[in-house]
Design goal:
Elements: H1 9-12, H2 15-25, H3 33-40, H4 42-55, E1 64-69, E2 73-78, H5 81-99, E3 106-107, H6 115-126, E4 131-136, H7 140-143, H8 146-156, H9 160-171, H10 190-193, H11 203-212, H12 214-223, E5 229-232, E6 235-240, H13 243-259, E7 270-273, E8 278-280, E9 283-285, E10 290-292, H14 294-312, H15 318-332, H16 338-347
Parallel strand pairs: 3-5
Antiparallel strand pairs: 1-2, 4-6, 4-7, 5-6, 8-9, 9-10
Helix pairs in contact: 2-5, 5-11, 8-9, 14-15
Pfam families: RVT_1
Organism: Microcystis aeruginosa G11-04
Keywords: Nucleotidyltransferase, RNA-directed DNA polymerase, Transferase
Length: 352
């Protein structure tokens, strides 16, 4: 039985919630001109934003978009600061309630359910099963269908004003990279008529992407009866000692995903023996050890070299350099990387 969550709107628009949301939205961006301008009259601006939400005259602003390659090309879309405040205000209220409906092994964009916790679980499953079916969804964020997403959220929430705000945020998404997949029942124009894509970079997009695949997670666990399963954004894995079970599961998964207008990657999605090792969240998981993937390590070395140049040029403080190096080493420490870390320290003159 699905329980729809209500009584959210008044909590979202409370001034204290908007104030807390503003503090979250400015983290790491406090000294940017748009944030400084907003905070110069923060209370006045928050009250204005609150009034717009109450009167339902609020409308999102224009996104600022740019492309990155880390490791693959992505279109990143940054919402204006006041919109990010609204995103945080919304998520502070609805996320804790909706996340209670998620399966345990849904990771990424969740407090205490991040990369390294997902890695630990993946290692456990991989070392207790003979086979893995590992899949990746093609162009996931650009493919998310707006009508299906809104329908999913409407089944979980029952507050009309909260749903109206969610619909507004989704409808105001900027155009993403085009996806032209066809599904059963489509005609020639269907892919052009359906709005798709969520902007990578939005807090709401990260959460909505988890909601979008929540039904799929339950399908795998409850219908396919695959208990050793986990998902990290659009990368998911099923484990079993029975190869035939996973072969059938792949067919069932492909059929289910068509109902969400999604497809798994034909090359990256593979069924193989766990003894051969598997790549996951930047690591190589082998039966007897964990390695940092070479491409991940290369990007880390490049970032370190860039930080060293900034330090030497006086653009970065010693304490900030130390903080970032420590954070990278914490990431490396989840692999069998003691000698690697010693080598890196020696290369930057930290060991004699």
């Amino acid at each position: 039985m699905v329980v729809r969550i209500g009584n959210t709107w008044e909590k979202i628009i409370e001034f204290e919630n908007l104030l807390a949301a503003a503090r979250l939205a400015q983290q790491g961006k406090r000294y940017r001109p748009n944030v400084l301008a907003f905070n110069a009259e923060r209370e006045k601006n928050l009250i204005k934003l609150q009034d717009e939400l109450i009167e339902q005259t609020y409308h999102p602003g224009q996104y600022r978009s740019f492309r990155i390659t880390d490791p693959k090309p992505r279109l990143i879309s940054a919402a204006p600061y006041r919109d990010r405040i609204v995103h945080h205000a919304l998520c502070r209220i609805i996320v804790p309630a909706i996340e209670r409906t998620f399966i345990f092994d849904s990771y990424a964009n969740r407090t205490r359910f991040g990369t390294h916790r997902a890695l630990k679980r993946f290692i456990h499953f991989a070392r207790h099963n003979r086979y893995i079916l590992q899949c990746d969804i093609c162009q996931y964020f650009p493919s998310i269908d707006h009508e299906i997403l809104k329908s999913t959220l409407h089944r979980k929430l029952k507050c009309p004003r909260t749903l109206a705000l969610i619909d507004l945020i989704i409808d105001s998404s900027n155009p993403q990279d085009p996806v032209s997949n066809y599904y059963p029942g489509d005609d020639l124009l269907t892919p052009l008529q359906r709005r798709r894509g969520l902007p990578i970079g939005n807090l709401t997009s990260q959460f909505f992407s988890n909601v979008f695949l929540d039904g799929f997670d339950h399908f795998v666990k409850e219908k396919l009866k695959i208990q050793q399963y986990l998902r990290y954004v659009d990368d998911f894995a099923l484990f079993s000692d029975d190869k035939e079970i996973l072969q059938q599961a792949r067919q069932d998964i492909e059929a289910y995903l068509t109902t969400l207008r999604l497809k798994i990657h034909p090359v990256k999605s593979q069924l193989f023996a766990t003894v051969h090792g598997a790549n996951f969240v930047g690591y190589r998981v082998l039966p007897d050890r964990i390695r940092v993937r070479s491409d991940n390590l290369q990007r880390g070395r490049q970032r370190l070299q860039s930080l060293q140049r900034e330090l030497e040029a006086g653009l970065l403080s010693q304490s900030e350099f130390e903080r970032r190096l420590t954070a990278w080493f914490a990431h490396l420490s989840h692999a069998d990387s003691h000698h690697l870390r010693q080598k890196i320290l020696k290369s930057i003159g930290r060991l004699s």
